[in-house]
Amino acid sequence: MAFNWQEFNTVWRDASDFSLEQKAIDNIVRHRKEFGDELFFDRIWKSIGLTQPSKKTYPPRSNQDLRSLWTKVVQSPAPDEQKLALLYYILLDSRQTLKTSPADTFIRKTHLPQKYELLILGLWELDHAQFARALEHLTDPTLTLPFADQILVALLKHPKSDPSLATAFYICVSPPLEDPKALDAYSDLLSSKDPIQAVYLARRQDQTNHKRLLDKLVVKILQEKTPNRRAEQATLLVGMALTKQEEEWLEQCLLSGPASKLPGASDTVLVRRIATGKLSAEDGEAIGRLKGEKIDGVNWENVRQSIQDAVPT
């Protein structure tokens, strides 16, 4: 006899009077706020053609609300596999309360393809801020992953997520970074941890984003509040191998662009010219302004005098 998955009582059986506990409802509402007012449940909801705002429907606050939610999914215009996937998500909520959840029986009797099971398990864990467990499913190599950019943003922006998980996700999945939020968020992470990789990321973008991300990197370095960290990253910046176009963008950023008003901007240009051997006679006077403590073992007083002696007149 065929399993009538569309019928609520058939699927829920002995738990047909189930409703979420208030604590579970409060947690879902809180998680939605933490994720910028949109759960991955909400994204799936919209993807199957449901137009009623999902936040008014999920989480269900009573058994009647749960039944109504079930009916809305069943009656959606989506293919059956997509409906089954979202119904499975709803069933997963019962695992937190019931000793025997109908979720496993549902999977077995509906023969939901594994790709949907993995996806829904991962997105459900993600919506419940269980990031490490979510990635166990979402990074499965057999999975074609929707919402990849949005998942990356969630891993980078959620206050309880470890940025290392975002890096692991990026390496495993290679999200397209078509969403500007994802591109900027991942670029910011690289800018903080590895400016060289941030430049490589910028180079893989179109010209507009290439320049914009390079500007953001320079600004971030000059705005670093920890002196040693700022010196370390500035050293990387002035010694970085750049293309001719990037060299022009860098000087423009520092001299007249978004970094021009930041402390050390003009000196960074000068030190960059020193590092690349592009000093001119006009730079001689400016070199005299280079002063400061030893940074990474380099004393600017000694550097200044040596360069002044070498600059053409």
Distance linking N and C termini: 95 Å
Strand content: under 5%
**Poorly predicted ranges:** 292-308
Write down the secondary-structure element order: HHHHHHHHHHHHHHHHHH
Q: How would you describe the shape?
A: elongated
* Main beta sheet strand tally, sense and closure: none
What is the typical, i.e. mean, pLDDT? 89
- Specify the helix fraction band: 55-70%
| Helix-strand category | mainly alpha
Number of strands: 0
Number of helices: 18
Rg value: 27 Å
Explain this structure to me?
This protein is mainly α and 313 residues long. It has a domain at 194-292 and 302-312. Helix content is 62%, strand content 0%. It has helices at residues 8-12, 22-34, 40-47, 63-74, 80-92, 103-110, 114-127, 131-138, 148-157, 163-173, 180-193, 195-203, 207-223, 227-239, 244-255, 265-276, 283-287, 300-310. Helix 7 (114-127) packs antiparallel against helix 8, helix 12 (195-203) packs antiparallel against helix 13 (207-223) and helix 13 packs antiparallel against helix 14 (227-239). It is elongated, with a radius of gyration of 27 Å. The termini are far apart. Residues 39-256 form the ELYS-like domain. Keywords: Nucleus.
SSE layout:
Blueprint: H1 8-12, H2 22-34, H3 40-47, H4 63-74, H5 80-92, H6 103-110, H7 114-127, H8 131-138, H9 148-157, H10 163-173, H11 180-193, H12 195-203, H13 207-223, H14 227-239, H15 244-255, H16 265-276, H17 283-287, H18 300-310
Helix pairs in contact: 5-6, 5-7, 7-8, 9-10, 9-11, 11-12, 11-13, 12-13, 13-14, 13-15, 14-16, 15-16
